[in-house]
Amino acid sequence: MKKFVSLIFAASLLLSCDDGDIIVTDFNFEDPQLNWCGDTQSQVLYKINNTGVNEAIAFRFDLNTPTLQFLLEEEGRKVIPLNGTTNQVIYRVFDGEVDRSYFCNEIPPVSPQVIEEFRSTTGGEVVIVSTVANATDHDGDGVPSIEEGMAELRDTDGDGIPDYLDIDDDGDNVLTRVEIEVEAENTVNTYPDSDNDGIPNYLDADDDNDGVPTRNEDWNLNLNPTDDQNAEGIPHYLNPEITDSFEVEGVRENEISRSFRYLVTINNLTLVNQGGDGEQIRLQDYELGVITSPNQTITLEPTNSDDNEEED
């Protein structure tokens, strides 16, 4: 409670309106990470603080309003208006420690008791901005997205999947993460270049420059040339002395793991004390916190591969 009173007092020192409203410029919990609960009627994003004062702030919104689920497979920005009823921000101070599952119960627990409660009015809005959590390496192949030509949507193998989302950039059925770990005397920008032709293996359709495409040096036709090796353990696709060629149909499935980070901000927030005295707290731009979705495995299908053209 002391922290709450101090917050109101400090805020009134910053700016107080003629009608008694208080403008708050800082209203931060220490942990930016949000929790998320939901039931058959509503969803709630919340965070709890039991250090110094027992308090919680939550954004509850109706299921008829688009939930966070709509952003699980895209980057973007969504605005949810506060309406004072179904879409509402609630700030509470309690007389004891608050359990992490407090907002996940259909019926609030008897203890701890709420000793102060503020609820949002209409006029404000909640803005949810989603970005890919692994934005530096979207496909997780070990080559940063910026180096894979993300800006220009470079597509080395012309399969319709840009390199920064393609786990096999050159389409030779040897995964990029494997090709950048091959031991080689020569390198290009620190990446292995086995045949020293100035093209790193992960972008080279013929890694040993023997005239046979790497994808055709797949002796057992299992879409993985790496397991066809000589007695010394050298893969045939890296051995220029072996030039046997096989007609290989199909490509490796392009599965990537993806999660999104959501930044939740509230604009023009007005919280009204529910005790009947009409006391208000206002925040112009309040960063409620962040939440990260679980990892999802998604498959990106080629759109311009030879195999697709044959099927058509």
Biggest sheet, in brief? 10 strands, mixed
**Average predicted local confidence, pLDDT:** 85
Task: Return the domain count.
Answer: 2
SSE arrangement, N to C: HEEEEEEEEHEEEEEEH
Helix content estimate: under 10%
| N/C terminus separation | 69 Å
Spans where pLDDT lies below 50 across 5 or more residues: 1-20, 307-312
Compute the number of strand runs: 14
What general outline do the C-alpha atoms trace?
Answer: elongated
Rg, nearest Å? 28 Å
Assign the structural class, choosing from mainly alpha, mainly beta, alpha/beta, alpha+beta, or little secondary structure. Answer: mainly beta
Beta fraction: 25-35%
Total count of helical runs of at least 4 residues: 3
Descriptive account of the structure:
Helices cover 7% and strands 29% of the residues. A hairpin with a 5-residue loop joins β3 (42-49) and β4 (55-62). Strands 1, 2, 3, 4, 5, 6, 7, 8, 12 and 13 form a ten-stranded mixed sheet that branches. A two-stranded antiparallel ribbon has the order 9-10. The relative contact order is 0.16. The protein contains three helices and 14 strands. It is mainly β and 312 residues long. It has helices at residues 2-14, 176-179, 306-311; strands spanning 22-23, 35-38, 42-49, 55-62, 76-81, 88-94, 114-120, 125-132, 187-188, 191-192, 255-258, 260-273, 280-292, 296-299. The chain folds into two domains: 2-133 and 259-299, no CATH class; 134-257, no CATH class.
